[in-house]
Design brief:
Elements lengths: L5 E4 L1 H7 L4 H15 L10 E3 L8 E5 L2 E8 L7 E11 L2 E4 L2 E3 L2
Parallel strand pairs: 1-5
Antiparallel strand pairs: 2-3, 3-4, 4-5, 5-6, 6-7
Length: 103
């Protein structure tokens, strides 16, 4: 059976969610839990490991939305995924909490 990861949100990621409509927020949360509860460290067409990002080590694509996260899976701790930031990407512009960000 696959290892189950707990999902945790940083304070800033919680605040990022406030920028989205109720419908978009629900879409993001549903997909985030579906994609990251099991095997969040496996690259797929929606998940990729970032090489030189200041935000996080992983990115999840949900349509135009982007979820940036880190993974903690040590022997001493229960494995968890920390959601660091959530934004929206239009063309090559990533907006997080109303500001343009370079991932």
């Amino acid at each position: 059976m696959a290892l189950r990861f707990e999902i945790r949100f940083s304070d800033s990621a919680d605040e990022n969610l406030d920028w989205f409509s109720k419908r978009d927020k629900q879409l993001i949360l549903d997909e985030l839990f579906r994609q990251l509860t099991y095997e969040p460290d496996v690259e797929t067409k929606r998940r990729k490991k970032l090489k030189s990002s200041k935000l996080a080590t992983w990115e999840l694509r949900i349509g135009d939305f982007r979820v940036f996260y880190d993974i903690t899976a040590s022997v001493a701790l229960e494995p968890y995924v920390e959601i660091v930031a959530i934004g929206e990407k239009t063309h090559n512009v990533l907006m997080i909490a109303g500001e343009e960000v370079k991932p």
